[in-house]
Amino acid sequence: MSLNREGPDLLPTSMKQIHLLRQAFTTALDLVLPNHCLACEGALIDKPFLCEFCRDQLRLIDGPRCSECGKPVGKFSTRETRCAECKRHPLQFSQASAPLQYSTVTRDLLLKLKFERKPLIASFFADFLAQHFASLYWLVKVDVVVPAPMHWFKHFARGYNQAELLANGMASQFGMPISNALKKTRHTQPQVRLARSERLKNIGDSIEVRRPEDIRGKTVLLIDDVMTTGTTCSECARVMYEAGAEEVFALTVARALMRNPSAVSKPPTHTVEDELSQQV
Ligand SMILES: [Zn+2]
Ligand SMILES: [Zn+2]
User: Fold this and answer.
1) pTM of this prediction?
2) Ligand approaching nearest to the C-alpha of 38
3) 51: closest CA among 42, 59, 60, 63?
4) Which domains does the chain have, with CATH numbers?
5) Which of 114, 174, 218, 230 would you call most buried, defined as having the most Cβ atoms within 10 angstroms of its Cβ?
6) pLDDT tens sequence across 70-91
């Protein structure tokens, strides 16, 4: 996958820098690319990360989206339509978007990323984020990239914050600075298992800005893996606005819809991490 298929000599200076960064990133990835499909474990022949079959199962979001939360709003809507949910429950960020639907293969990959310690999957999805971000008007506004925070205990148990891996992989392709400006102050239940009202109660007052100097007066790009109702990203945006952020946009790998049963299936509960998190 490439953001730009033209030669670097044809590009303006800023795009040349992006092109060179992407080349370096791709070269680094070449050293660690897997021999087997990250989703089904089948042998890879000529495409990196995913076999042809699993790649065909990825569902890009195309067509009109809600102008606030980025949810697909149907073929006949205008581009500026806000969805019914956003009219009822306005979200705090300026706009959110995601390249992929939360389909079965995307869900499986994100669960593997989170629960089976396969951080290489973040490299794969970072490319989707980068390509999608390059198509958005926010591209020219963003000053700093901020990953959605993870509680320190969960970070300790998992070994990494997947949102931080995604943010690093994506931002490095544009030479954008990253800040872990946010902090999760208490353990919360996974939002994917909860209804909207429960999500608000669950996430409320659990996120703080620990580095206000990194976001004050700046346009922030918040990165997370999945958005469903947007409650988590909205709470992150709220605290960043309180800390002086100029504007906050949210970019996630996938967009899940609450009415889609596959979008709310539960992650495995037998992992060491889950057992540990029960103790928090
Ligand atoms: Zn496969
Ligand atoms: Zn919406």
Assistant:
1) 0.79
2) 1
3) 42
4) 61-277 (3.40.50)
5) 230
6) 988 876 655 568 888 899 989 9
